[in-house]
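Hi U.,

Before I forget, here's the chain from the pilot set. I'm dumping it here mostly so it's searchable later in email.
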Amino acid sequence: MKRGLYHRDGRKAIARASQASHKHLSKMSPDLSLLPTLETQRMRLTPLVAEDTQYIFPLMADAEVMAFWDVGEIDDPDVIANIVEGQVEEMSEGRAIYWAMRALGDDQFFGTCDLSEIDRRHHRAEVGFMLGREAWGQGYALEAMQAVLAYAAASGLRRLLARSHLGNRRSDALLEKLGFEEEGMLRGHVLRDGERRDCRLFGLLL
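Structure:
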């Protein structure tokens, strides 16, 4: 499921890992307790846990949030729990890192962001993001993604991929602000609600 992205300027979102520095992908540990927490000016990005399902469910049940994802809104909490369980499993296997986005002050949950499809041999990964509607237009997505990109570069990744559904202008604008360049169109890439959707493919060299 890829990916809803939103933006506003946030010039000083610097990623700071709370654990030991990860300089090489080969050193990225599958031990969940060693996964990094990233901090920005306004947020703390913490590795996703099963208990975050209760916060993710309202987002994935929202038709507007899910408008540009590969699937429509999901109103079954058990399905969301299974999705989160799968994401936690991916992290335990070292194939992805999913973060919950929370405010530094009151711990308010804003959404999630991630590095997925991590390929250590080719030093590349895919980025993704989901933000609740109440947090749109306030720069949280850009701030979080700047932190994720900084962490990716420090970890030894050298290429990032992103995909947006055609017409998702907020995603496109954010990716361009982050330095991604459009690399092509994936025609009919997604089948949703009986229709095939085109997707734009973006890439960034770190």
